[in-house]
Please model this.
Amino acid sequence: MRFTKFGKALVMGALLLGVLVGVTSCVESYTVGFLYVTGTVTASTGNNGIISGYKIDHNTGRLSPINTLPVASGGANPVRAVLALGSRYLYVLNRGTNGAGNGDCFGTGANECQNSNITEFQVGGNGVLTPQETFYTQGLNPFRLIVDSSGDHLLVLDHDAPDNANPSSTDNCALALGTLGTGSPVTTCGDITVFTIDQTTGRLSLVENAQVTAANGSPLTYFPIPANPTEFLLASGYILTLTGAPAPSSFPYTGGTAVWPYTYSATSGQLTLSQNSVQQLGIGQGNSIVSAGSIVYVLDNEPITVTFNGTSTTSPSQILPFTVGSGGALQAEVSGVIPDDPTLSNPIQLLLESKGKFLYVANQGTELIGPNPESGIAGYFLTTAPSFQLTFIAGEPFGSGSGPQCIVEDPSDQFIFEANQYDSTITGRVLDPNSGELDDMRTTSTYTLQGPPTWCLMDGRTG
Model:
């Protein structure tokens, strides 16, 4: 069949349109990952918290709700969640409630958390969460959990060991920890509960302490740590617990002053004393210990004046960089103490960008709903030579909602999200891969949650 010039033009136009449509379809939206956010708002009768979930658009970073979510978290006051076994299972730590019916739990008795649990969820191919089984930690007032890099074990940080309900000089804390160099037996402590994760079902089973026998001669079911912990971390083969805070009268716990190391076995899940003393850090308000590559950072929430790159700055908080040495001892980096952005306050979490070029610190600021000038994200360039120097990124601090509670990077390394406690929002920003600046998204950057968030995590498994 022969075409006229006009007919050929029509055919070529149709073909071009088809190509354009095909190209457009190649860049159409698809989900690059799932963002999960735990929250304290009641999801149903029974005082459960909730888990919200969102699909992340690869091209724009836009969030859209996952079908069937939010879902009940399996207990009251969820505070942490982790993914394991290739993101096939999600575990939520629900703190429970105290005698007054709220999550402000501490100590023993009326203020102690009741009905704490760990709820297991299976993660479906579309990010849907299906509840499985419920497990229980050994101590009181649990508030942190992590999964080791092998995916074989889950560890829970309990603020109070069971011994604290009836302490004595011959209790299990004293048997395990001795005097911690004070000359007097330890009578109260926190603890770490360790579980093995079944690689098929995700079911948790308790790991007993093979290092210490309880006073009654039976195996100890937990691993004691010094009293009043505020955070813990797995780094370089050690479990490092930030501890030494005063006995709390509220939650969240703050005031860490020292680090307690355990040698960690990824094979057995056993924690072994590497040194029987705490390492004092010379700080008074440590609230987080985090790992960024080969460096461990401690966030210290107290005013301090430091000299950084030749300039003296009074900062409401500081970042202390360390490497991990023999026995889990922290070795201070020669770069010295690094100030937080002086216009922000209350640093809560640190995030190392996936390529190791930039570091961000989420600052909660003061408890305000609406504009919060002390809330925001401090941003730094990270140089590994000569000594992990940090310099502020141009344009920082970057805006956030009021009271960021957590900060995460999406699996495609394009976007940064944080969930904000005081105004119940999620804020998203575009990460500039060259400058490290966090820019506004082309679409909306703020999403409303049903209530205050407590934690957020990212899942890169979408199928």
In short: Helices lie at 5-26, 172-177. The chain has two helices and 37 strands. The two ends are 47 Å apart (CA to CA).
